[in-house]
Amino acid sequence: MIGRITGVLLEKRLDQVLVDVGGLAYEVEIPLTTFEQMGEATDRVILHTHLVVREDAQQLFGFYTEKERDLFRSLIKVNGVGPRMALTIQSSVDSDTFVRCIRDNDVKTLVALPGIGKKKAERLIIEMQDRLPDWQLAEELKPAHIANQDIVSDAESALIGMGYKPQEAAMALAGLDDTSVEELIRVALKRLVGGKLGVSRSRK
Question: Is 0.70 surpassed by the pTM of this model?
Fold first, then answer.
């Protein structure tokens, strides 16, 4: 089994790359998500790979991350989903969104993917549920303080959109710590309208 290749990118297409590894060039099938993260020709690349051996061909599939490859390996275990369909799914939706659909039983979103009908979407949900228990979404991996910074930033942008100056919005949000943008805006507006910060609404 070829689990990973490291080499120089010779050619790059939407669904395939050619990678030189010590003078030997590998044709590697890739999803669009991997294509978008790769560099240009002559760049050094690392691909996590999965080799599929059939009677009439050997196909090497490559992924930018191990998580993408793990998802591919889980997909091809589903009844009726081969490597090509798995690659199409991964090219049509990012891994976290797909996993979220499985967890939320979101048949509607899955049916919108190319080649996925209602029965296949339901089968994906049933068969994939037990294969993704340890999958952590990006937001689940984000440290709490970083997540809070994002919320404060969104609240600040909303206040600026209401006509307040950036420094006014920043002052109104200073020291606040809440789990929702709406609550931060509510408290900040109370400060601003109440005149506790000594600022007035800007006129545009």
Answer: no
